[in-house]
Every structure is written in structure tokens, then in C-alpha cells.
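[agent] plan:
  1. take the single chain provided in the ticket
  2. run structure prediction with default settings
  3. attach C-alpha cells to the ticket
  4. add a short note for the reviewer (M.T.)
[agent] executing step 1
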Amino acid sequence: MRHLSIVFIFLSFFSYGQSSLRFQETVHRFGEIIENEEVSHTFTFLNEGMDSVGITSVKASCDCVVTSYNLEKIAPSASDSITISFNASNRSGAFHKLIHVVSGENTSTALQITGYVINSVKDAISIFPAHYGNLFLPYKLFNMGSIWHHERVEKEFKIYNNSDSAMSFLIDSSRIPDFIQFRIIPNTLPPKSIGTLLLNYDPVRRADLGFLRDGLDIRTTDVEMPLKRISVVATIEEYFEIRLASREDSVNYPQLELSDENIDFGKSSADQPKFHTLSLYNRGVDVLNIRTIKSNCECIDWDLKKENIPGGDSTVLMIKLDPINRKGRQFKNITLFTNDPSNSTRVISLKALIP
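[agent] step 2 finished; step 3 output follows
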């Protein structure tokens, strides 16, 4: 049975001892939310004690907090959760709320929720500095962050309609890569209001590694700028599952060793390419595969002698710096993506001085 309560009276006569209920997290940050919006978060916990124990009460400092939890006892090693909801009606600015979870052991765990309530056009504009016509964003691009190569990721971005009329998003006539899906909530954004863009990114379909940048062409009914061209960036890394049970076999895994990770080309004339030979060793037993190589500059080129290196063997990577149209100190890098599960992404720093 779930118990739903609106709690706003703090009681001060319970114990603060160690609870058997161990929460995975005790703090949640909602970020910016809109006035009159209601948001929720679920805190999950585990009973690490030897006996069954239940939650006897949940106490908060504000009637804006609503809690939902189970009144039944939780068996040892079992998990359960508490859902905390915050109502932003008639509120503005930063908020910080404490919620004390009291167990049958007469112990308490403090949970915290924080965020910022936006309730004015001035506030909204200040936190949406990137402007695409009347569509205001908190950043100039949508950054998905670092993600694994095998798992879809969905991320939420707040958006703001600064026009005096409603803005609709014409998804069917927009140009979106097949590995990206997104939706706007609501699809028609009222004037001077905040909405949510949910972006779903599929790295399996993207089929690449490293830092990637792709464009979205989003058509809208915004008279000032109907077509929004916005970039989506992500850093995709390969995921390797190494079970603890097979740790003794880790010596068999491929293991990349580099002869150098900091290369100084020295002083170079503006019309003379510079070269450096890098040795790649496989200190493991299984075959080491160089998945791909990337650089952060078109001035860097390379030639890899072989992509698959047997255990105990090595190969050569020739790196070329083209200094044409460059001047002063140069700091670049080249990144190797491999199947070495202990360190699959290796960054090699490059520098040079071009008078």
C-alpha cells in the first residue's frame, strides 16, 4: 500500500541514528522550472539491515512538498522508493527543501531537493542567451555529453518562445539525422513561455566513436527565423564489460602501450611538413584492434601500418603536421580508439612552434 501525504509540520523529537535504509542518493537538483509547474523525483533505497524495517513517517518543511511511499515493511536486502513532488505555484527564485524519512528503528535520513523557479520574462531571457530567431536556448548547441556506444540516451533541454505569438515545431518538414529523435513539449509553444525539448540519441545508428558534431534543421512557424539550424554534439566511447569473476584472465586482454604520448615537433617552417614516428605495442595476448583515429585539426594527418596487432607485436603510426597557413605555438592532439578494455581511448598531445 502506498501512502500519499502533504507534509508541512516539522517534528523535532525523533532520533538521528544510523538507518538501515541506505539511499542511492540523498540530493536531487531539478534545475530551472517554471512557475506553477509540478516536478517529481523518485529516491530509491535498500534495506541493509538484518531485520525487516518500514518507514513510519516522512516530514518536510513546506506544504509545497508531496510525498508518496510504502507503509509496509521492507525485507532485508530488498529495495523500495519514495517519490517527492514539488509544486512551484506562487513561488519564485531558488528553493531548497529538506525531507526527513523516519524509519521504524526511530532513525532519520535527510533528503534534499533544490532548484530555481522562473516566473518572469526577464528571468527567462537571462538564462536563455542563445537566440535562434524567437527560439531562445540555454546553450548554442545541444550537448549530449559522454555516452556509451551501445546505449540510447535521452536528454532534456528547456527552451523559450520569446515572440508575441505561439510557435509550432514542424517535425515532418524538419531534417533530422536518423540516429536522433526529438519532441517538443508542448508541440505548440505559447508566446513568452518555456517548453521542453526531449532529444533521444542512438549511438548504435551513429556507428562512430569520439567527439561528434551533427546538425538539426528544425522548421518552425517563427516568422523571424522559420528554419533553426542547431548542432548536436556527443562524445561516444566504447563500452567493455569486464566481470570481476574473470579478472584473473585480464592478462589476456589486448593492452596498448605507446612509445610516446607527448610529441614536440619543435620549430617548423611554414612551408615544411613535420613527421613523427610513433610505436604502438600490444602488451596483452588477444589481438589489439585500432578502431579509429581522429584529430582535432585538419593540419594533422597520419598513416597506420596495420589496424590489428597480435599479442606481443607492434606497429608504427606515422604522424604528419602540415604547418601551412599557421603561425605561432600550436597545441593539437590525436586520439586513438582501441579495444583495450582498460584504457580504450588514448589521447596523444602534439605541439610545435611555427615562426
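[agent] step 4 note for reviewer: Residues 5-16 have pLDDT under 50 and may be disordered.
[agent] ticket updated
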